[in-house]
Write a structure and sequence with these properties.
The protein is of the alpha+beta class and about 160 residues long. The chain has a single domain, classed as Immunoglobulin-like. Helix content is about 20%, strand content about 55%. The protein contains 3 helices and 8 strands, in the order αββββββαββα. Strands 1, 2, 3, 4, 5, 6, 7 and 8 form an 8-stranded antiparallel beta sheet that branches.
């Protein structure tokens, strides 16, 4: 009869543990472009360094283990960045990080710089953040729009 007496406390303990589990949900995280600077340009590949601002609207610090970003200028896709460097986001704060973007549509960048002397363009940055909080993982997608200065890319576009 000892087994039934032990079974009840064990079931109560397991039930209490499952009640403590909470779903890991993130509120708003945004990623915006601070600047774009050329790194290298060849006939086959052009790379630029993009400084990104990460804004964390959560009350907890967030550890981002990697990111991917797709960049659109004036509505047209121009390239992507994949970053495996960890980024720490402070609670209710911002931080910046540099990522390398592969410009796959340099012809469009050249066209933007030549057309009517444009020095800036509107952008859309679609980002995916690979977030870890304790043992939980979550992919967080966000999209940000704004305006970015293209003057630094003028040397590459020639």
């Amino acid at each position: 009869m000892r087994l039934p007496r032990l079974l009840l406390p064990l079931v109560a303990f397991v039930a209490a543990l499952t009640g403590c589990a909470t779903d890991f949900k993130l509120s708003e995280i945004s990623v915006s472009i601070v600047s774009i600077r050329p790194i290298s340009a060849t006939a086959l590949e052009t790379q630029a360094s993009m400084t990104l601002r990460f804004t964390n609207a959560n009350v907890l610090a967030i550890g981002v283990d990697g990111t991917t970003h797709k960049l659109y200028l004036n509505g047209a896709y121009v390239g992507q960045a994949v970053n495996k460097e960890a980024v720490g986001l402070p609670p209710l704060g911002t931080t910046t990080a540099d990522v390398t973007i592969q410009l796959e549509n340099l012809a469009l960048v050249k066209q933007l710089l030549k057309s009517a002397g444009e020095q800036s363009a509107t952008y859309r940055l679609d980002s995916r953040l690979y977030v870890r909080a304790g043992e939980d993982w979550q992919n967080y997608n966000c999209s940000q729009q704004g305006s970015v200065d293209l003057q630094a890319l003028a040397a590459v576009a020639r």
